[in-house]
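Hey, I'm writing a tutorial for new members on how sequence and structure tokens pair up, and I'd like a real worked example in the thread rather than a made-up one. If someone can provide the structure for the chain below, I'll link this post from the tutorial.
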Amino acid sequence: MADAKANGKNEAAKLAKIPAAANPLANEPSAIASNISYHVQYSPHFSPTKFEPEQAFFATAESVRDRLIQQWNETYHHFNKVDPKQTYYLSMEFLQGRTLTNAIGSLDIQNAYADALNNLGHVLEEIAEQEKDAALGNGGLGRLASCFLDSMATLNLPAWGYGLRYRYGLFKQKITKQGQEEVAEDWLEKFSPWEVVRHDVVFPVRFFGSVMVNPNGTRKWVGGEVVQAVAYDIPIPGYKTKNTISLRLWDAKASAEDFNLFQFNDGQYESAAQLHSRAQQICAVLYPGDSTEEGKLLRLKQQFFLCSASLQDMILRFKERKSGRQWSEFPSKVAVQLNDTHPTLAIPELMRLLMDEEGLGWDEAWDITTRTVAYTNHTVLPEALEKWSQAVMWKLLPRHMEIIEEIDKRFIAMVRSTRSDLESKIPSMCILDNNPKKPVVRMANLCVVSAHTVRGLFLELLR
């Protein structure tokens, strides 16, 4: 304990000798040390008398983030001006690893930061150990997604990643006297220095409700409950390149109007904040248990929340980059890649947005959707392919079930009219399994029917 206090005083003394000066693009160790010192004093998160490893990590991360933001903004403005076709990678998981070591390595400033921290009385490796892994993924699926983002950034490709901002991730393991225990991740217990909240990027996402038929025959999803999707961005730098792309994470919040002040003042505290509580559940953990109907609804909410917010963001960007655009241009500017079946609801949601919100007819919306969406499959095990109860789907997403039914009906008609030899395979190929004992929606089948490209081995199951 005495040694720790002595070290803390020594580090604070060294910090005091370094002039605090904002220098976001610093390359030399002395200038970097000054920039770190600047963040200790002017971006404070801890008591001003401390400069222990944890405090040093956050100040160092904010210093690195200065450099990343400059490249990040340049990348955004470049692609906004050039207006290329962009890849949008939708995944329920991203296993990023520690950002500090990855960022300084990609920026080729690792040695400079090591020297700067030595000047401040710290060792880079010890500071890097203070960072908690972002609890956004669990295993291979998330690691693959993160590798794709790193690769696209390094190859100077115009790309975005889209995921959810899980507060507690999946779990972390803890060894106690009672044995192995699973407890919630705490990566956001303080804060993440890499996140940038975009207060101007907020989209409404609806659940439940009903379908209203307008006098002109068009349909609209109304009622139910609406939560707000708020964007948090994390920069993903390419390796030794200036291209820095975005991992956009969505968090769910209810609005102030959804807080019932009358009920709260009447002592009905839980009822007053009911929608706020339900909104917070959406991004609480990765893969919530789904053994109950409530669990199934929550997991399906997560998947739809990711898809709806991301698609609204893509459509807004498509419109903003060039006024007066034709919808036929959409697939030449937007490429949506679904990582496994979790983001499958992007297919009926894109159809709904194009038809119900933008006024397109079925044929045009279907042509755009099938030329926009691609699908990556990760398994050939039938038991691992997602199937959602039709009853749960009708309850949570009634308009999307109407659209899925129509896609399935048209697919079956197409097979019968063009490939009569496949008649016997239709029960295994169609999207809706209408088994009266357990009617389900086959999400992988919906992807294969709707996507222009399928990567993986799913087609083996249909042979």
